[in-house]
Design goal:
With 259 residues, the chain is α/β, with parallel strands linked by helices. Helices cover 42% and strands 14% of the residues. The chain has one domain: Rossmann fold (3-Layer(aba) Sandwich), CATH 3.40.50. It has helices at 2-28, 48-53, 80-84, 101-111, 117-128, 130-133, 146-152, 156-168, 191-198, 207-210, 226-237, and strands at residues 91-97, 138-141, 177-179, 202-204, 214-222, 242-250.
Length: 259
């Protein structure tokens, strides 16, 4: 009979200790806005000014590349670029436009060693990619060249892919794609120059896992889409049945590249 009364008491003590411990941690290390580092109420929350400046990409948008439209023209409408030259992927979506706080988060993750941001960013990406996630795709990060990986010590796309996997239960394949050529940094290049920069730079290393698969490429930012398209072409040649792309942010017609 004693056990019948002990379990509720144990749970109550556990909850008390948990709340007390969390309060002590918050006192020493209070939760902060991921963008400006102002103290906020809960971990992962943005402060009101930063949240109001986040430009979420929602419909209406291009049915293929996800570029936002100023007004709705139908759910299946494609932008002029996708109609003129259909990309090698099926769909691309991004959580945010690349400007303001979103650019700051990308740069803090990539160059500021704030790897914990991947969890918050992946949450936003999961919402943007919800229709694509329903088919249980294989997550695949856009690769870094080994030299750049040694310098940075991590691939930010891989961090995002693993954070997305933890949220969704999907599988991640980090070694299927390889960047076999150390391409120059593409900042400031035109769309044509970016395409030439990555031509032949991406190769498939695990074709047996790709043939017939639905692949979801994961990256931090889409600028012109040149790198994503190079990855998609390599995957298409390896036999992928469907190729989608999700990024945390993307450059749109009314944003400028900041990093």
């Amino acid at each position: 009979m004693a056990g019948c009364y002990d379990m509720p008491m144990e749970r109550a003590v556990f909850q008390l200790l948990k709340r007390t411990g969390a309060g002590f941690v918050d006192l020493l290390l209070p939760p902060r806005c991921p963008s400006c580092r102002t103290i906020v109420s809960e971990d992962g929350n943005f402060c009101v000014p930063c949240w109001s400046r986040l430009n979420f990409l929602t419909a209406p948008m291009c049915a293929c590349c996800g570029l936002p439209f100023p007004y709705s023209t139908g759910d299946d409408t494609r932008c002029g670029a996708c109609m003129e030259t259909p990309p090698p992927f099926d769909h691309a979506r991004a959580a945010l436009a690349y400007n303001g706080p979103s650019a700051g988060l990308v740069l803090a993750l990539k160059h500021g060693d704030r790897t914990g941001l991947a969890r918050i960013m992946a949450g936003m990406m999961a919402r943007a990619a919800a229709p694509m996630l329903a088919d249980r795709p294989l997550l695949m990060p856009v690769p870094l060249h080994t030299r750049r990986l040694r310098l940075r010590r991590f691939n930010q796309a891989a961090l995002l892919a693993h954070a997305l996997a933890r949220r969704t239960g999907l599988s991640v394949l980090t070694t299927a794609l390889a960047r076999v050529r150390d391409t120059p940094i593409s900042r400031g290049m035109s769309r044509r120059q970016r395409a030439e920069n990555v031509r032949g730079a991406i190769r498939v290393r695990a074709a047996t896992h790709i043939k017939g698969a639905h692949v979801l490429l994961v990256d931090d930012v889409m600028t012109t889409g040149a790198t994503a398209e190079a990855c998609a072409r390599a995957l298409r040649r390896a036999g992928a049945a469907r190729i989608d792309i999700v990024t945390f942010a993307r450059v749109t017609h009314d944003t400028v590249e900041q990093g």
